[in-house]
Task: structure prediction
Amino acid sequence: MNKIVTKSGLLIIFPETNYLLHMKAILPLLLLILISGTITAKNNKTNSMKKTEKQQLAVVWTSGDPEVAEKVCFMYTHNALLYWWFDDVVLIVWGPSAKLISENKALQEQVKQMISDGVKALACVACANMYGVTDQLKALGIEVKGMGSVLSGYLKENWKVLTF
Result:
């Protein structure tokens, strides 16, 4: 059996006998597949070039678990900006995470690096005040303010919102 794999991954199998006859029969099909693959690739490139809307991500970090912060939340949040998965990335410190970040030096360094690389860091003022950590959060470069209306705005503006 003879096999041909097209650029698009289509496998064509035909018997060895009358090779030229089979080639004449499938040549138009192969040309059609090649042309359609080229058109599809061109359309995909054109569509990706038309992307004018910013891709925006808001990560709501609520967990007081340092392992969740380091191994999930921070890793994804930071890489979402570094690898241009999103144009804008915001980390929102909310609830128990405010207390955790005020106590954990390693996490503080990671947040500082994210901020340095362009991740915007915000914290809920009500939560920060409840835990008595407002000044510590501000010292890390985290903007502390009312977050209810801010998060509602992100949701209304079609930001992608991810919660840890």
In short: DSSP finds seven helices and seven strands in the chain. The CA atoms of residues 86 and 112 lie 19 Å apart. The radius of gyration is 26 Å. The first strand starts at residue 2 and ends at 5.
